[in-house]
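Example 3.2
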Amino acid sequence: MNVDLISKYFTTLTDAQKQHFKGLEVLYQDWNQKINVVSRKDIDELYLRHVLHSLGIAKIQGFNEGSKILDVGTGGGFPGIPLAILFPNTHFTLVDAIGKKIKVVQGVVEGLQLENVSAKHIRVEDLTEQFDFIVSRAVAAMPTFVHWTKGKIKKDSAHERKNGIFYLKGGDLTEELKEYKTAEIFDLKEYFNEDFFKTKKVVYLPQKFKNPS
């Protein structure tokens, strides 16, 4: 299971992007021996369980040149790093409250010489910037996540879709999303054939704004 899996679903990768994706395996294996951020089982299936899973968001939404994306609770750099490789002209800010995880992210970013990624050891509530979209992999239930990220999304949209959140989740989301009438759910099994994706989803939650009185 290697970079060919990525090329199977993203057929227009440049040579530079292929090299970046290829480089992920060695970097994560090296860093994981120092700081465990990926389970042993998952490190053997890095491209399936982490890289391709992260890129599920890209099947739903492309990011324009110059736009700004925030990855909250990035852990070892997912989904932010794979998305940053795929969208080299988009800027990604990856944040996590756990310093050792951000150390790994910074090491991988430096190893790949990615110039469109910033990694910060900070709680999202303490960020002062605003972004076009926020991405994440199931770090909390949606109501909690929405609370954490309040005020972090730009009002003016530069994409066809409204600015908002793209959240990678699994399982039955009925209860969790019942108060979010505008949420859209995309089944990743519609885009990827592997069994791993049978229950995996991308949730898109457009940002709501109150009209000025």
